[in-house]
Design a protein that fits this description.
Helix content is about 55%, strand content about 15%. The chain is an alpha+beta fold. The protein is elongated. Pfam families: SpoIIE.
């Protein structure tokens, strides 16, 4: 006889059947059969309940899956329709010429909004059909309508803003081109006893730096370098005023023009134009080939350097910035030049240029670099300093305009 199940053994013992090898009496046997019958009935009921539970769960899961699938399809349809509506604005912007006037811009936006409204109707129709099939209320459609109308208004504003930015960008490009015309080219400017090279790099579309080289009667040569406070289009306008004042002074006082007279004229022009809201530091120098001298006057600008026989020193000259006062006066200083001398003018955008650790380039570093390359010629000196500044900055953008002028005496 196989081993009896422990549960059955316990049940029989409760009925008083201890010896399984001997059959029980009739009454005990009837009780055992009744107990076994009850057990089978409970097992059958439990199996039936479990089966019904599984059937119900399966039905509910199937319904939930269908609902989720329907919601997924509805959302996919709405997202696709939104993308189609957004493409309306993109198509209008990409297929139509760029607006050149407010009237044309308004017409473009009107067309885009009309097409968007048509696409909105298609979206709402699709959403209404989906909502009806899924039993959703009309509040869903109303929310979609409100959100899409808000989106349309935002897109219209985006079109206006984009057009305005495009127009401003064009104006800045024109201003930048005009300012580039105010400074000489980066070619070396050769004169009878002098070679000059310069570099101008604005920090923004337009800059507040400016430099110039002009011929005067008697083979004299004028160089000017200036730096307006700040940078951008406002500063660029002031540099234009300074350039105009310099040209006016050269035209009417060319033979008698002095550096102090030039600074006074430029000071009056900037004082009237900027109303003390902008100032310009400036250095003006006139080279005389006959006497081999340079006469210099300074209006609050960094002192230039002169390199001679391996040593470098500053050329100090005092004076208030242009535009600070309507009746400012300036003093001139004359320096005797020798063959092989090199001169360097610069704006503070060079010495204050920072690296990624926000450490400035400094006058000390510029002076040492100038001393190292002073005998290599103006073009090489300029290029070496420009490269050193770019390498020092690394990936950091310019915080201020960078301008330098180099002259070598022959």
């Amino acid at each position: 006889m196989s081993e009896t199940d422990p549960l059955l053994v316990r049940q029989l013992k409760r009925l008083g059947i201890v010896d399984l090898d001997e059959p029980p009496d009739r009454e005990t046997w009837q009780k055992a059969l009744a107990r076994i019958s009850d057990h089978y009935r409970h097992v059958a009921e439990d199996r039936s309940l479990l089966t019904r539970s599984l059937e119900l769960s399966t039905t509910e899961m199937s319904q939930l899956h269908q609902q989720l699938a329907a919601e997924r399809d509805r959302l996919k349809g709405v997202i696709t329709a939104v993308g189609d509506a957004l493409n309306v604005f993109h198509d209008v912007a990409s297929t139509r010429p760029e607006p050149t006037s407010t009237h044309e811009l308004t017409g473009t936006i009107t067309v885009a909004k009309r097409q968007f409204a048509a696409k909105l109707g298609e979206i709402l129709a699709v959403s209404s059909a989906m909502s009806a099939s899924s039993g959703d209320s009309s509040e869903v459609i109303n929310d979609i309508r409100v959100n899409f109308l808000h989106l349309a208004d935002r897109l219209v504003q985006l079109l206006y803003d984009t057009a305005e930015k495009a127009s401003l960008k064009k104006q800045l490009e024109v201003a930048r081109a005009v300012q580039q015309m105010l400074v000489p080219s980066e070619d070396v400017h050769d004169r009878s006893f002098l070679r000059i090279a310069g570099h101008f790099q604005p920090a923004a579309e337009c800059g507040g730096d400016w430099w110039a080289v002009h011929d005067l009667p008697g083979e004299r040569v004028l160089t000017v370098i200036g730096d307006v406070t700040g940078h951008g289009i406002s500063s660029a306008i002031i540099t234009g005023a300074a350039k105009a004042a310099c040209d006016l002074a050269r035209t009417f006082s060319s033979e008698r023009l002095t550096v102090t007279q030039l600074l006074r004229i430029m000071n009056c022009s900037i004082y009237e134009a900027a109303k003390q809201k902008f100032l310009m530091t400036c250095t003006a120098s006139i080279f005389d080939p006959t006497n081999r001298t340079m006469t210099i006057a300074n209006a609050g600008h960094p002192f230039p350097y002169i390199a001679r026989k391996g040593s470098v020193r500053q050329i100090p000259a005092q004076g208030s910035p242009l535009g600070a006062s309507g009746n400012a006066d300036y003093q001139a200083q004359t320096v005797q030049l020798q063959t092989g001398d090199a001169l360097l003018w610069f704006t503070d955008g060079i010495t204050e240029c920072e690296n990624e650790a926000q450490e400035p380039f400094t006058d000390k570093r510029l002076r040492a670099l100038f001393q190292e390359v002073a005998s290599t010629g103006p073009e090489r000196i300029r290029d070496t300093i420009v490269t050193a500044i770019a390498d020092y900055r690394g990936g950091r953008a310019l915080d201020d305009d960078v301008t330098l002028v180099v002259a070598a005496v022959q």
